[in-house]
Design a protein that fits this description.
By secondary structure, the chain is α+β, with helices and mostly antiparallel strands. It contains eleven helices and 17 strands.
């Protein structure tokens, strides 16, 4: 993927062809072996690093900003003074992503910005290296040294430039290696799959034995075609085909989770329970507690009152260290007094339920801050309030 991006992007190809030591690492462009002087007037070599903006998977776009990062000491002029034309600050956080460390932030903004990465890299390389080259005119950043292509270990089929652009690659890496199961792909489960598939978890295992039917199309992410509906594809296969275009680790299980196959959840890092039968929900939850597997159970309870829909959304979390509340939250009896079971089309509630569940999972994974540490959360439709309960000690 890296070589393809360089070959199809004129600005990156020009940098490589002119001899710059360029390397692509996730959503970042690295330029190695840039000579500079430190404050002792010693010659050193550093690395320029900038965030990549892509037009598509094989072509760069216009850089979205003018800043660039630097790995090395603060570059100085011939008198040992900081080059003020480029130096901006030295961020506390020293790692943008795995394998991409920085020391300083540079800022040098042309009036019209930088039209492409060639002009941006050349400008910063020239300013950084000029004092060192003045002392030794044999120095150059254009070494024509080949950078060995690294094996693409990404779980995505294309680079996650959203995370690199927001500088959250390092935080996002907390999901690396996780194996996620989603039991049930009704409206909420499908939206959970949509959100989880955009994270770098290692594997995603959606379970559902139902067929994707017309009513499902109105409470699921995306827009199914009439041809999609007429195919009578199993939900797990239907959604896996969509999200496997983006994420490599999706393995559909087009059957229900039963007592006979509960063991398939044993190796999961987290499990989302998205079923509408309490008896099934309780059986799965009890099994996961026994196995010490963290899970998040979701639920919708809605009724028609005075010709309006009212009710609540629920997210209940169970972990190896906090599960004493579950007997008050997850019951084995199936509730027939719930209009949701009649397939009222409420995609917005499914989306909100999924969003709250995924946010909780991300809190447990230390992606988001979690001061409340609640293990039961409910949103009441009529009063538009979120209630947090069952906090961990």
């Amino acid at each position: 993927m890296s070589q393809q991006l360089i070959n199809h992007s004129p600005d990156l190809k020009r940098l490589r062809d002119e001899g710059y030591e360029i390397e692509l690492c996730g959503g970042y462009l690295l330029i190695h072996h840039v000579p500079y002087l430190n404050n002792k007037k010693e010659i050193n070599f550093g690395t320029l690093i900038c965030v990549l903006t892509l037009s598509n998977n094989t072509t760069t776009g216009k850089p979205h900003d003018h800043i660039i990062y630097f790995k090395g000491e603060i570059p100085c002029d011939n008198e040992g003074n900081t080059i003020s034309a480029i130096y901006h600050s030295s961020p506390v956080a020293k790692e943008l992503s795995k394998g991409v460390a920085i020391d300083h932030l540079f800022s040098n903004k042309p009036v019209a910005g930088y039209p492409d990465y060639y002009e941006k890299v050349k400008r910063y390389a020239d300013l950084t290296s000029a004092p060192a080259k003045y002392l030794n005119d044999s120095l150059t950043e254009k070494t024509f040294r080949a950078i060995a292509a690294k094996d693409d270990e990404s779980v995505f089929y294309y680079i996650d430039t959203n995370s690199s652009r927001a500088n959250i690659d390092r935080i996002n890496s907390k999901f690396n290696g996780q194996k996620i199961a989603i039991v049930g792909l009704g409206g909420t489960g499908a939206y959970i799959l949509d959100l989880v598939s955009k994270t770098p978890v290692l594997e995603i295992h959606p379970f559902d034995g139902d067929v994707f039917q017309q009513h499902n199309a109105f409470r699921s992410p995306g827009a199914a075609s009439l041809e999609d509906v007429d195919k009578n594809t199993k939900k797990a296969d239907y959604f896996a085909a969509i999200y496997s275009k983006m994420h490599k680790g999706i393995s559909p299980h087009s059957y229900y989770v039963t007592d006979d196959n509960l063991c398939e959840l044993d190796n999961m890092s987290y499990v989302f329970i998205c079923v509408d039968k309490n008896s099934v929900r309780k059986r799965i939850a009890d099994y996961l507690v026994k196995k010490g597997i963290t899970f998040i159970d979701v639920g919708l309870g809605v009724n028609v009152v005075d010709d309006k829909i009212n009710g609540a959304i629920r997210v209940t979390t169970g972990t190896p260290t906090k599960n004493d509340h579950l007997h008050n939250r997850i019951f084995s009896g199936d509730n027939e007094n719930n209009d949701y079971t009649t397939n009222i089309q409420i995609a917005d509630l499914n989306l909100l339920n999924a969003g709250l569940a995924v946010i909780k999972w991300k809190k447990i994974s230390d992606f988001y801050a979690d001061l409340e540490r609640e293990h039961h959360c409910s949103y009441s439709i009529s009063v538009s309030k979120i209630f947090n309960e069952d906090a961990a000690a």
